[in-house]
Every structure is written in C-alpha cells, then in structure tokens.
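Below is how a single chain appears once it has passed through the pipeline. First comes the sequence as given, then the structure the pipeline wrote out for it. We keep one example in the README because the format questions we get most often are answered faster by looking than by reading.
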Amino acid sequence: MADILSDEFTDGIIDFTAVTTGTGVSIGANPLAIEIPGDTDWFVFGGIAGTRIQFDLKGSPSGDGSLTDTFIRGIFTDIDPGAGVIIEEVIGNTDDDTGEGNNARVIFTLPDIGPYWIAAGAAGNNIGTYTFDAAIFSPDGGLDDQAIDDIDNNITTDKNIVFPPDPETLPDIAHSFVSTIGVEGDTDWFRFGATVDQVIQFNVEGLGGDPTDTAIRGIFFDDGFGNIEEVPNSRDDDSGPGLDAQITFIAPADNLYYISVGADTSGSIDNNTGAYEITSSIFVDDYPNDVSTTAELDVDNSSNTGTIEQAGDTDWFLLADFDLIFGLGTINIPVGQVIRIDLTGDDSSGNALDDPFIRGIFDSSGQEIPGNTDDDSGPGLNSSVTFTIPSEETFFISAGAFGNKTGDYSISATIASADGGLNSGAVGDIPNDLFSISTFPDTIGTPFVSGTDGFNSIIESAGDTDWFSIVLTEDQTIQFDMTGNGDTSSLSDPFIRGVFDSTGAEIFGNRDDDGGDGLNSQVTFTAPADGTYYVSAGAFSTGTGPYNISATDVITGADGGVDPGTPGDVPNNNTSTAVLAIDSQTTGTIDASGDTDWFGIPLTAGTIIQFDLTSSTNPDALSDPFIRGIFDGAGVLVSEDTINDDGGIGINARVTFTVPADDIYFISAGAYEDGIGSYIIGATDVSPVI
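Resulting structure:
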C-alpha cells in the first residue's frame, strides 16, 4: 500500500471540482494507512472563500479501518506563494475525538481559495488503516448526505408534508414522512401550503436511538422578491414528548411555506444523526374561543363535552338556563343568581384531559370578568368556579387546560348558594345560606375542646357546606375551629369556606384549609361592625363526614397576636404585668395559634441585652420559638431588627438589643406559624466590661 508523503510534497489531493452543494467526497484511495508511529499523511485542497467543509478521519470505531484512534494533526497554508512553499499552521484545527468514538473531525471555513493542506495521523503510537471523508456545508448551514436521505435543505425540496392547503381535501388526519439526518448538521426541508390563520401542528419524533434530540430549525417562505424569510418564533427543540420537537404554526398569510427539520447538536449530544418521522395535523377546533360560539352550557341540566385539541386551545360556552322561564329557556340569568361551573376530565374515549383549567368568564363583549379563572379547586386536578351573575347580559365560560395538556373534558353549570356550596338535601342538613338554623350562643365558648363545644354536624356529600350564624360587636375577634369529630368516619380534611355578612356577601380573607392542627381548619375573624355574621363549614375537595365547629372569643394585642384569654395567660400588649429580670429566666406557654406573651423589663440606655427564647424541657415544649419583637413603654415596636426566629441554638430565637434610651421595654414571646407549647425566656447583660 503506497504511503501518502508525510510532508507538504503530497500526492494526496482532495478534489472538490465535481462536488455539488451538500455532497460528500471520499479522499484519496481509501482505505489509507498510518504505517509507523508518528506517521502523518498530507492532503491538499482549495475552493471558494467562505465554503465550510467537514473533514472526518475514521478508523475502527466506525468500522472504516483498523486505526483505533485517529488524529487530525492540523490544517496548513502556504504563507508566501511567490517565494515557494513556505508552510504555516492555521491555528485551531487539530482534533482527536470529536467524531464517532475515537474518530477525529474538523469543520473548516476557507478564508480564501487556498491551497491548504490537512494532515491525517493517529493518537500516540497507533498504526493502522483509515478512511478520510469530506462534505461541504450547504448555504443554510446544514450538511445533506445525498446518498442517505436525498432531501434538499432549501426551497428546491420536492417533499410535500401538507399540500395543497385545502381543509376540504385535507381532513383532520395526520400526514407524515420518515427520513434520516445523515450527518451532523444535516437539515431536511419540507414544503406545505397554508391559508391565513390556518393552524397546523408539526411533530418531529426520533425513531429509536439517534437522533436522540430532534429539532425544528424554522419555517420559511419566499417574500416574492427572491428573499427567503424565516417566520418569527418558528423554531423548537424539546416541546414534544421527551426530546422530540413540536410546534403549532398559525399561518400569517396565504402562502407556500417550508419547514426545516434537523437534530439538536448544541448541548452534550454529539454526532446526533439517524432516522426521524415528521407528522403534521391540521387543527380543527370543536368550539370557537370567542363570543361567536353557539355552544350553550345549560344550568342544572346536562353537562357538555369537548376536546382541547392542541396546546393553548380554549372552548367557549354561552351560559344559559332552560328551566327558569317555564321550560322555554333564557340566555339572561337573573342578577344575583350564583352558578357553580365544574370542568373535569372525560375518560369515556380513553383520552381524558388530566388537568382542566377554567380560563375565565367573559361578558357579552368578550371582556374578561376578573377573579374567575381556576386550575385545581375541583376534585384532584379538576377545576371549579363559583360565579354570581352581576348584570342582565350574556356570559361566556372559557374551558381550557393547564400547560400544554390536551384531551377530552366535561363541563357543567349548577345553581349554587351564596358561598358556592351545594346542599345535599339530606334530612337534617344545615342550609348553606342565610336561612341557616344554627346560631352560636351570645356567650362565646372557651377554647375549643373536641366533642364538647360548638356544633357537631355532617358534610353529607361532595360540595356540601353548612352555615352557622353568630352575633358580634364591632372589633370583636373570634377564632373559629373546624375539626373532624374524632370518629373513624369523621371528616378527614375540614375547610372553612369563608365568613359572610348579614346580606350573604363574603368578607374576603377568611377562608382556611389547614390553619389548625394537622389538616384541621382555623380562622381568626374581627367583626368590622355590629351585626350577624355567618361562617361556612365545608370540606377539602370531595371529602365527606362528621365534624365539629366552635367559636372562641379572643383578644388581639398591639403586636397583632392573639391571646385566648385562658386563666393565667400573659397579655400580649403593654398592659402586661409579667416581668423579666436581667440575668434571669422565666417560663410561659403559647396557649393557642397566634398567641404571644409580653414581658416587661426596665433597661438603661447603652446597655446591651441578649434575649433568648427556647423550648422548655416539658413534654409540651414549644417546637419553634419566635421572638416577635421588642416594644417600648408605649407598645411601639422599636425596630424590625428585634424580630427573630432562629437566631439562637438550633431553631431557638435570640435577639441582641442595644438599649436606645432609659425606659421599660417589652419583649414579645411567640411561636413560628401555628405552634403552641411551653417555653423559657431569659435576659442576659452582655455589655462590654470597662
């Protein structure tokens, strides 16, 4: 086997004269050989300035010779053609293992016509046969290996993925094509026609093995003046399943378009080549997503079904009631009527939408009415919204999905009570409106004790709520506790669904799910005026079962904490008579969620005092102490810096306080979040000794 000379006087010539764009060329009399350690073979080449060439030096890793580790030793140029052959290396063009396995690869852009030389060798002392190939990049930057897939990567392509653009002749079925990314950087172009606003979804799926990461490299069109323009935002890498590419294309005009398919090589995946399938489907929506819809959602009748066909799709329904006027039907539902909308997945076809999303309620002009979107308020990931008819006009419900979800759904509308609950109608059930028969006594009870205080009742069915009335004076603060009643069948996750005024209007900010112990519910409510109020007891999701609800009169202190008023409790304001001495400790108890205890301490300006609030050693010890601040004699917080949660050892609290002036100060002892239990509080003078 004749060797290629190991110097610039080579007989290895890379001839691109017959090469067309995108076609590979085999160099020399393959296979060639590195016969001795350190041997290199040189090849001369040239071409049009700006041409990009991919060189692949291949051996045993790809079955193209016996050389186990090829090495491209550089590209060189004649720096002074008029003075004879004077060779200089073009820096940055050596490579060992960028190709498949231990094969070598270099991509080189010709600065001018040349000539240039490329040196083929081996890593270390390896010897053996090799194959040396080259391919020219096409104008769009891709490499087409014509021997493998024969699809052009420009507008000369003759492959039609969807054509012609006529929905009557192209029903809602998928059109697909299977092809191959032959070499790294290769792209295949497919042409398709589309009419303005037509929606087409393209999916590019790797067919096992490589390409492991498909990519849509853009959608293009001819602007009519010979320029190929890219449609903005028409590229995608991983929006489909796994690493597959997916894009939903809305045609900006009647036109012939081209979609470019390739593989992602920007990340850690090298040599991303192999078979893929491109699939297209014309999107046909079952319901419009605006006021033009004729689909009606009948209140308290039957549910409607529909399909979210593609990511971002929404279906609009006109809210109507065919039972309000002698069965003849009406579009305008009476003002003040409360309607509950439920959007759930429908698995009757095996394609249930797994995360429905009510995307809003809109008025007759298509303007959104704020506050009526919902994702997961229904059972599981289903959606539910309670809507009070605000005016005499038509309204539209927008059904959609979370994220990029698609699938079938069911939507229904039901007349509900003012709190949005649905009464079961069971004998003895407590109404969920102003006609409640249950009233808390004028004398509010002591802190809640399960089974002995408040009311015992039952949530009989999913969505049921019970209302309880209570008469309060202005600024009176009540703590409502809702718990399972202790039975094995008791309600596992109580939910206080709100506090309502004497007209049935909700006073916002008073709903709670898990603010009590465990999954129990707790709300602290301050009456804005004298009057009758209602608290709504319900369950999380579809829960049912017995429960207990109670009301406790509480005192709100200057720091916003809540004292339960139990005998011996330390007040949480500057009326407290509890005293903390310097260099001493005292104990106390956080009796209820939100409780704080204030301790007075006379201090001298300039002294530095360290306050430590720690858990006691008792079984009921407070798990996470929290110093809620240091207050002056008037009860005003001295500084935000005096509030501390975990500044001590572990999750104990610590504040180091430099006294600004002679005064009696108060330190507020509390707990993190809803904690209760006993604690130790101490004060230590840490002023420097002079």
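The mean pLDDT is 78.

See the next section for the split statistics.
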